[in-house]
Amino acid sequence: MTMTKEKFTYIPQGVCSKRFDFELEGDVITNVTITGGCPGNLLGISRIIKGKTVKEVVDAFQGVHCGAKPTSCPDQIAAALTKHFQSN
User: Fold this and answer.
1) pLDDT category, 88, cuts 50, 70, 90?
2) Class of 5-87 per CATH?
3) What is the pTM of this model?
């Protein structure tokens, strides 16, 4: 059985990052490129979530806030993954 490979882009809201580009095989994240934001932190996040399932990442990142903001880049990653899988 071959896993479905797909790519999608998400434009985050309320954070410094400008764009997330995801690559998935089934429900496993194979790559994410984040444009804008804090380069070191976001490169680290990109590496940490590679190979993880969507559920693992959503469970870990959903609800994380950045200072006084009601969201964060990790929270927006969770939102992107949730929105993508709810619409597919």
Assistant:
1) confident
2) alpha beta
3) 0.94
